[in-house]
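re: ur question from earlier - yeah i can do the single chain one, its not a big deal. heres the input i used so u can compare w yours
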Amino acid sequence: MAPERSTSLPRRGVALAAALALVLAPAAVGQGLTIDTLLTRMMAEPNPQQYTMTADFTSRLTFNMATGRVGASAAGVFSESRPAVGEQRRRKATITRLDLPLLLRPFSGAIRGFIVDLIETEHRPSETVPAHDVFIAEERPGGKFLVGGVRQDIVTEVMIKYRQTGGLREPAARRAIAQWLWSPTQRPTIARGGPGPYALTAVVDEWGLAHQLDLFYDWGNLGTKVVFVQAGGRTFWKEVVVETSSEITGMGRVDGTMHLVLTNHCVNCAPR
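and the output i got, formated as tokens:
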């Protein structure tokens, strides 16, 4: 007689099903704040009215070179504006002082452009979140929440592999699977290539402002941390730390960290 074929799920599939049953229960965190409400606030455009804000900035960069770590600094004037209600927000950085070590001076033009691009380009969760199944991992003091996410194609792949196809179109089921995959014990197993990150972590306040955003790629992690300040009844950058991996003309691929500090915020003031 032929041996009976087992129809049970693999151990990892059983663990996934158990995680699904456990995680599906909580739908809200804190005082009724759901992930859907938080997502809506994260996607909303801050400071939607017309305005112009100017500030001074100082920036310190650390480049990780083959020969070791090299530092550079810059200072200048920063402006952020919305010319009219509904128009896209604009940012502009003008460097008035650039201090480079001898090793980097031949690349001063490229580094100047690199710094400006880092300051003017805002990395927001709304650029990354739509491609992920996201969830609230925990509530933190001060009205902040730890949000996690796993790329949607990875969640779909795992659900199909472990016979959880009944929940493929159910947001709650997908978020439960994503939360299980995102956990520190499982995260190394879901690393995938591609232009976008395979997972993310964000610290978001109850109004949807991202104070920290970490993106996980198969080759490493990139992170952004932001401290905000109130000026003219609006919220603006005060301090930003950005981990970056970018191409710099003449230098090739460079990994580094930028620490940006903005002061003397002034809303709707005369141009400097």
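The chain is about 20% helix and 40% strand. not sure if urs matches, ping me
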